[in-house]
Each structure stands twice: as C-alpha cells, then as structure tokens.
Amino acid sequence: MGYSNIDATLSEADVQAVKDHFAGIISKLPFLINLTVPERRRTTKTGPVSMSFVENALVTARDNKHILPSTFDTDVFARDVELFALLSEIQTVADSVASQIDDTRLAVGGEAMQAATQTYKYVKTAAKTTPGLRPAAEKLGERFDKAKRRKGAEESGSGDSGGNQG
Q1: Structural domain boundaries of the chain?
Q2: What is the pLDDT of residue 74?
Q3: Distances in Å between the alpha carbon of 120 and those of 83, 93, 128, 137, 142?
Q4: Which of 12, 104, 119, 139 reaches 20 to 30 Å from 94, CA-CA?
Q5: How many CB atoms within 10 Å of residue 38?
Q6: So what's the pLDDT on residue 1?
Q7: In Å, what is the CA distance from 163 to each residue of 36, 46, 81, 125, 157?
Q8: Is 55 within 8 Å of 81 (Cβ atoms)?
Q9: CB atoms within 10 A of CB 143
Q10: What angle is formed at CA 71 by the lines to CA 66 and CA 74, rounded to 5 degrees?
Q11: Are 111 and 5 within 8 A, CB to CB?
C-alpha cells in the first residue's frame, strides 16, 4: 500500500523522549563497540548458515571438553553464542525501525522539496510584477544554478576525469 501525504509534527518533548529511549537502550548495552574499517575486514563474519555451524560446534565442545585445551573456555564460547543470537534479534527490530525512519524521512523530504519547488516557481513568477521579490527569487534560484553547474562539470569531465573506465 502506497503512502499518502504525511502531515505530522513532533514536539521537542517527543523528540527528547525518543532520544532518551535510545540513550536507555544504549545504557542497557554498555558493551557495544565501534570497529574500525580494518577491524571489520579482519573479523570472521557469522551469518545464518555459519550460525548453524557455530551452534553445532558449541554442542560438540560441551560434549567433548576432554579434547579441548585447558585454555579454551566453553562457558565464554556459550555466552558469545547466546549474545550473538540476542543481538541479532535486537538488530532485526532496530533495522526495521531505522528503515521506517529512513523511508519516512525520504518521503517527507520529497514532499518538502516539491513544496519548495512550487514556492520557487510562484516567487519567480511574482517577482516579475511584485516589487521586492527579486532577491528572494534569486536566492531560491541559487539551488538550481548550483545543480546546473555541478551537472555541467560532470558532463564535461566524464570523458577525461580518470574515473571508471570499464
């Protein structure tokens, strides 16, 4: 089902409440980290297929502790498996909310841009006969002038810019 025009507001108190809820979520997950790009590259990835392998390995490790070195901590391994599963569940919810926020932001931004473009057209037309509107029309028109210059630069530089050549 498509959306219809979004007409909503958020009070400062509601925005602060949402931020406070996110802060509360973060406070419940004090172990969260930020990996650097190289750390992300070096980290072995675990997806749905790999998770089956991990769970089977945990069962095997628990059933065969006698073959593992004394430095291998099966309890830590089990906690990692459990935490990964729980974080995956939370990630699914967070991704859904983030997707809805992004889609709504995109739609509302599009609506605002359409209204702004209409406003510019009206002001540009009215500036021809209404004293004092020319500066406003010129100011609004700067957005389109910049876009034209950027597009012109991309078109003129596309053949010799050293970009993607196949």
Answers
A1: 47-155
A2: 97
A3: 53, 40, 13, 7, 11
A4: 12
A5: 8
A6: 56
A7: 27, 34, 44, 40, 9
A8: yes
A9: 13
A10: 60
A11: yes
Instruction: State the pLDDT at residue 136.
Output: 94
pLDDT < 70 regions, the chain: 1, 147, 157-166
Q: What percent of the chain has pLDDT over 70?
A: 92
DSSP secondary structure letters along 154-165: HHHHTTTS----
DSSP 33: -
d(CA 83, CA 76): 10
Q: Where are the alpha helices (DSSP H) in the chain?
A: 12-28, 37-42, 48-63, 74-126, 134-157
Structure tokens at 101: 């926020």
Amino acid at 78: A
How far apart are the C-alpha atoms of 136 and 146, rounded to whole Å?
A: 16
CA 140 – CA 133 distance, rounded (Å): 11
